[in-house]
Amino acid sequence: MSNEFEILARFLERFGDDVQGRELTEAPTPKLRAFAQGTLTPTERADLLAGLQDNPEWLAWLAQEVKALRAQPPSETDAAPRTT
Predict the structure, then answer these.
(1) Residues 13-45: tens digit of each pLDDT
(2) pTM
(3) What is the pLDDT of residues 47-58, one digit of tens each?
(4) What letters, b where the CB count within 10 A reaches 16 and e where it falls short, cover 4-26?
């Protein structure tokens, strides 16, 4: 295994300035949870959707949150008829 690190270290020494990538940004967990629950304001929703376009890796977390919400039994407030 140390050989793998040596290979990586030599690669980075030679090509480190030429290696490009994207910084992984941490998902805004409370905002994604609120989005999944449908409780964001229109402005917050628009901001989050812009963030999702820039960070598609957040979609996996969002999908897991939606699945978890669907697995929960409905509460009494969810069962109330909506007036919209």
Answers:
(1) 777 665 565 565 677 788 888 988 899 999 999
(2) 0.53
(3) 988 888 888 888
(4) eeeeeeeeeeeeeeeeeeeeeee
